[in-house]
Amino acid sequence: MKTMIVDPGRKELLAWKCEREDFEFGAQLVVHPSQQAVFIRDGRIVEILGPGMHILETSNYPFLRFFTKLRYGRYFQAQVYFINHSYHMAMPWWLNQKVRVELGVGGGRAMALPIGASGTMNMQVDRDQVTMFLEYLLGTGTELSQKAIQDTFNSMLNSVIKPYLSNALRELKALAFLLDQHTETINHVLLQRLRPEFSKFGLILRDFYLDTFIMPEEDPTYQSAKRNYDKRILAGGQHDIEYEQAVFENTLADVQGQKAVKETTYQAQSDYIRAQSEKRRRDLEGITSIQEHQFDTINTMIKNSGGSGSPAVPMGGDMTGMMSDMMRVGVGLQMAKEMSGMMTDAMNVANQNSASFASAAAGGWVCASGHQNAADSLFCSKCGQPKPAASAGWTCANGHVNTDDCLFCPKCGQPKPSNLPWTCSKGHTNASDVLFCPKCGEPKGGR
């Protein structure tokens, strides 16, 4: 049975030499996925085998013909090195001497302080630079460990990191107590600067981290500066809290003020819309707000005319009893005067309506301004208004006939029913619930 050569490998090593140097033709060599096997003869690399199982026969690998065979022709001699291409993680580095850097300590002051630093790095052997790696780092040794790499490269790291770190912290105007805020920027720059240095030796620097700044904690001057800085931070924090509270209160006041303005604006808009709606309703009914108020007052007086023990007085009857009642319930003389004026206006309207009705009965007509005109006149001789179209009029509950423009019966005060048909100025008759004439578009109650 042919020999099988399987090297278990060691994770902490980057490269090591196989213990055997005599190999049998036909033997099986197993190379792990993260490895390469390097054959060396007379101090030079002859062949590099990648991952897999390799049967060492000249038919498979012609390079084996160049190896010296022993007398029986079954064996050949070679030096075989295994290269570990896996990631070598968290390899430590450190500054062997502190760097003196002028750093801010708050309050516009600065101090020259000795600063140390340490961290870790991740690397691997470059598959395309195995020859360079073995030549410069392994040499004639039997193995190359992570510690050996650290010892070899730490001097180089110091020569690059020290001057950069000093200049970078000075340019960043870093505070001595907040250096950790700048590690990400420093790590990125150092990684770019160190990669070419590692590449010269067949290594790939994957990651580089500055993990810790070492401060002069034992220095009394530094300790004093740190205490003063902490006091200023605490005072500033309290000031920030008070400032944020003041900003919050001002913002809250602004929001409340805006809310009040919006509520006032909304109320004003609602009142305006309500007033416009009422005005539109009065326009359609053909009355003014004063007339509506007068009508409401009259209706109230009619309803209350029997109060305080007095008998009810019908409209158009003796007003003495009603006025006496008003005085008895405490309404002043001024109010009585105003109510008397309102009643006078209402009676004038009734008289005008009566005159209009009488004129219409006699064959003449009265314009909207109250001017009397002959029956055959088509326009008012005083104001030029056109003669209104003939109307069927309406009859109150007591049988009195009234013209269509009378809102109250001038004889008994009965209001005009709301369900009567109405006629526009062009003579088109419409149902009571129609607000605009469908033939000419004139609104109910006139334009």
Q: Secondary-structure map with pairings?
A:
Layout: E1 4-6, E2 13-17, E3 22-24, E4 28-31, E5 35-41, E6 44-49, E7 52-55, E8 75-77, E9 79-84, E10 88-94, E11 99-106, E12 109-125, H1 130-138, E13 143-145, H2 146-171, H3 183-199, E14 203-214, H4 220-285, H5 289-304, H6 320-328, H7 333-362, E15 365-366, E16 372-373, E17 394-395, E18 401-402, E19 422-423, E20 429-430
Parallel strand pairs: 1-4
Antiparallel strand pairs: 2-9, 2-13, 3-8, 4-7, 5-6, 5-9, 10-12, 11-12, 12-14, 15-16, 17-18, 19-20
Q: Give the C-level CATH assignment of the largest domain.
A: Alpha Beta
Which percent range fits the helix content? 25-40%
- Structural Rg: 57 Å
Number of strands: 20
Poorly predicted runs of 5 or more residues: 307-317, 326-336
Largest sheet: 5 strands, antiparallel
How many structural domains are formed by the residues? 3
Strand order, main sheet: write it out. Answer: 6-5-9-2-13
Percent range for β-strand residues: 15-25%
Your description of this structure?
The protein is of the alpha+beta class and 447 residues long. The chain has three domains: 4-84, no CATH class; 88-216, Band 7 domain (Tetrahydropterin Synthase, Chain A, 2-Layer Sandwich); 289-416, no CATH class. It is built from seven helices and 20 strands. The strands form seven sheets. The chain has a five-stranded antiparallel beta sheet with strand order 6-5-9-2-13. Strands 10, 11, 12 and 14 form a four-stranded antiparallel beta sheet that branches. Helix 2 (146-171) packs across helix 3 and helix 5 (289-304) crosses helix 7 (333-362). It is elongated. Mean pLDDT is 79; it is low at 307-317 and 326-336.
